[in-house]
Design brief:
Blueprint: E1 3-6, E2 15-19, H1 20-29, E3 37-42, E4 51-60, E5 65-70, H2 80-84, E6 90-96, H3 100-113, E7 117-121, H4 137-151, E8 158-159, H5 165-175, E9 184-189, H6 199-203, E10 220-225, H7 233-241, E11 245-247, H8 256-272
Parallel strand pairs: 1-3, 6-7, 6-10, 7-8, 9-10, 9-11
Antiparallel strand pairs: 2-5, 3-4, 4-5
Helix pairs in contact: 3-4, 3-8
Length: about 270
């Protein structure tokens, strides 16, 4: 069942009246008709369950309005589909700022993958003015919302303000301060092969004969990805110093937006599966 994320509260009679962009999405993108059911996540809701099964009870194409009605059965037992897709770990994407159009794609894909935080970094190779795109917060909120609706992600993805590498590393340190070495992993994808290793070896870098690394114990995992020009050598060294493990994928040359998705998919496959 598709999921729709909404910040509007329910009416007292259990209905939800949507119009404008919401109407367009439900009617023209999801192509819903009267009688169809959809799972709706009410954000900032006072309801006992923010995830609701709702029925499309009325569509007014002339007024471009659509009315949803809350179904009676909305207990937690009805959301096995959501629970079965729950991610074991929390994921972070430290993305050196690319051009705005590429960043939008990266944010959309990261949201679909269930990344908790996208942390934009202003690096040495970041083109001047790219950080200004983040001033349009409403646009990124819409991108994240639409990506969550499309993918059904239960993770509330957030994009942080553009910041320096040191600030981003401090954020990672705070987020994982209470975790042991076995409970956290951090990687930096590097286009060069020096001071890097294969993904499999990097992922299990802390394993030994007496204490093997158990992916089931990992609670937080991060990857750092460069922008169009990659990551500067000094920045790569700083990431290694902060505990990130250098990884070089033996593949074709990847664009930054492809590398972010490719890297996150590899990490999630290793942890979640």
């Amino acid at each position: 069942m598709r999921m729709f994320v909404c910040k509007m509260p329910l009416e007292k009679n259990g209905t939800l009246v949507l119009e404008k962009k919401d109407f367009h999405y439900l009617r023209n993108v999801l192509r819903l008709n009267a009688g169809d059911m959809i799972k709706v996540r009410i954000e900032n809701s006072s309801e006992e369950f923010s995830d609701l099964n709702m029925t499309i009870c009325k569509i007014d194409d002339a007024q471009k309005k659509i009315v949803l009605q809350k179904c009676a059965e909305n207990s937690s037992e009805n959301f096995g589909e959501k629970n079965s897709c729950a991610l074991r770990a929390k994921y972070f994407l430290f993305q050196f700022l690319p051009k705005p159009q590429k960043l939008e794609l990266i944010v959309r894909q990261a949201t679909e993958c269930g990344v908790s935080f996208v942390v934009p970094i202003v690096g040495e190779y970041t083109q001047g003015g790219c950080e200004k795109t983040l001033q349009n917060a409403s646009r990124y909120e819409r991108i994240i919302r639409e990506a969550r609706q499309q993918s059904g992600s239960a993770v509330e993805t957030k994009i942080l303000p553009a910041q320096s590498l040191d600030s981003a590393l401090e954020f990672w340190r705070r987020e994982t301060y209470d975790f042991s070495a076995q409970e956290k992993r951090a990687f930096v994808l590097y286009e060069r092969s020096e001071n890097t290793t294969a993904f499999g070896k990097a992922f299990f870098a802390n394993e030994s004969d007496s204490q093997k690394c158990d992916s089931n114990k990992i609670k937080s995992c991060a990857i750092a990805v460069g922008c169009e020009g990659g990551i500067a050598p000094a920045e790569f060294a700083r990431l290694l110093e902060a505990g990130f493990l250098g990884v070089h994928f033996n593949t074709n040359i990847l664009r930054c937006e492809t590398a972010a998705l490719y890297g996150m998919a590899a990490i999630q496959s290793a942890i979640e599966n």
